[in-house]
From TrEMBL:
Its job: Channel that opens in response to stretch forces in the membrane lipid bilayer. May participate in the regulation of osmotic pressure changes within the cell.
Assembly information from the UniProt record: Homopentamer.
Record's protein name: Large-conductance mechanosensitive channel
Gene: mscL
Record's keyword annotation contains Calcium: no
Membrane topology: Multi-pass membrane protein
Length: 140
């Protein structure tokens, strides 16, 4: 039981996944800090954020309550930045790698097909005939 669990943990997928989660978490913190310290102040400046109850991106709905679009815009920018980095750093290179691997497999299949066809053109008994002497002889 422990042997199977150990094999499960040491498979490449689990290690890759755990590494991706750790790096993704650290990167999310970095992007969030960038958004909070650089992007959010710019959004607040445009939208009269901070302690102000009015502005382009703040909609008063009565009393002290407002709909704050600054927070939504900041979260959207945060999401787009993370998605862009994941796409350009992980998805795009992996897609290229997979495409190269598929092309290599196709080339191997073509080569093996050519070898098979050349062997089939050779005169003499086929593999089946060598393995089974009672098999019918080829007609040339």
């Amino acid at each position: 039981m422990l042997k199977g669990f150990k094999e499960f943990l040491l498979r490449g997928n689990i290690i890759d996944l755990s590494t991706a989660v750790v790096i993704g978490t650290a990167f999310t913190g970095l992007v969030t800090a960038f958004t909070d310290s650089i992007i959010q102040p710019l959004i607040d400046r445009i939208g009269a954020g901070g302690d102000s109850d009015y502005g382009i991106l703040r909609i008063p709905i009565g009393g002290n309550q407002t709909i704050d679009l600054n927070v939504l815009l900041s979260a959207t920018i945060n999401f787009v930045l993370i998605a862009a980095v994941v796409y350009f750093v992980i998805v795009l290179p992996f897609s290229r790698f997979r495409k190269q691997k598929e092309e290599t497999v196709e080339a191997e299949v073509v080569l093996l097909t050519e070898i098979r066809d050349l062997l089939a053109q050779r005169p003499g008994p086929t593999v089946e005939q060598r393995l089974d002497p009672d098999a019918p002889k080829p007609t040339a």
